[in-house]
Amino acid sequence: MPNLYNVTKDPQDVGKFRTPGLRKVLRISPWFHNGLFDNIEGVMNMYNNGMPQPKQKPDELNDPLFPKTDVHIKRLNLTKAERDAIISFLAAITTEPWRITTPELPQ
Length: 107
Ligand code: HEM
Description:
This protein is mostly helical.
């Protein structure tokens, strides 16, 4: 899993991932570092529900590497129309694929 902890080995860094740019986002599924979603409604629902809140089992209570969801991540309670509006925004910033042609080298 390419998260910051793998580089620093600091337990505080478990679950920290680079925040990706979203330009062309609708063309690059599956999404997230682990390809968790291949449908954008699923991504939107996950954010709307406040992301996963993993619960520690008794034998994990003292595990410093147990991933915790940040306190700032909260349920959004967006309506279907609001979620669709965000998906439309993501579509608006998704560019068409383009091909860069190599310039001709001088003889
Ligand atoms: C409704 C609001 C949001 C939407 C629609 C959204 C959308 C997305 C999407 C589509 C991805 C996948 C990108 C990819 O696979 O290249 C993503 C990844 C990510 N987003 Fe968001 N995002 C939202 C809010 C946030 C917020 C508030 C944060 C940080 C505080 C955040 C941090 C991240 C990070 C770190 C990733 C990479 C996670 C991973 O690779 O597993 N996002 N987001």
